[in-house]
Amino acid sequence: MKTILTILILIFNLTLFSQVDKAIGDYQFSITTKDGNLTEWKLTLNENGTFFFQYYSNVKFEIPTEKNIYGKGKWTMKDNLITFICDEQNDLDKKYTLNFTNSNARFIIKSPKNKTDQIIKTRVKFLKSDIFWIKGTEIFKIEN
């Protein structure tokens, strides 16, 4: 009985780790308007539990026209919910100004149970954040 229980626990843990492995990678979303304005979000989730985020915009009628805003910190995932954490002393400085503490995102992937031809792009959707303009943003995984 103990052997069966141990095997079931191991299988369950492997399933959890495989979801985290699937989340690791680069994500990007870009919008280009007819006027040639560009807005771009990039997120990298690293295997060691760190992340990097870049928001870039090039809008002709804003001052300054070009903006780069960065964030970094640590991330964890449980039940497809990614939690972002920033250490104010180590992760925030003149370059990395975005504080992702109190930010959560849903990791969305096509379920292995879904046998249809429906295409579901792997993505991260921000559900909650103190960064007001990131809530609701979906950033899609760059497939190699």
Q: Could you explain how this protein is built, in words?
A:
With 144 residues, the protein is α+β, with helices and mostly antiparallel strands. The chain has a single domain (2-141), classed as NlpE, N-terminal domain (Lipocalin), CATH 2.40.128.300. The protein contains two helices and nine strands. An eight-stranded antiparallel β-barrel has the order 1-2-3-4-5-7-8-9. The longest helix has 22 residues, at 2-23. The termini are far apart.
Short recap of the structure:
With 144 residues, the protein is an alpha+beta fold.
Helix proportion range: 10-25%
- The total of helices stands at 2
Number of strands: 9
Biggest pleated-sheet summary: 8 strands, antiparallel, barrel
Shape: globular
* Gap from first CA to last CA: 43 Å
CATH architecture call: Beta Barrel
Task: Give Rg in angstroms.
Answer: 18 Å
Q: Give the class-level CATH name.
A: Mainly Beta
CATH topology: Lipocalin
- Taken in chain order, the helices and strands follow as HEEEEEHEEEE
Count of spatially separate domains? 1
Give me the side-by-side strand order of the main sheet.
1-2-3-4-5-7-8-9
Strand content: 35-45%
Mean pLDDT: 86
Going by helix content, strand content and strand pairing, the class is alpha+beta
Q: In the CATH hierarchy, what is the superfamily? A: NlpE, N-terminal domain
The poorly predicted ranges are: 13-17
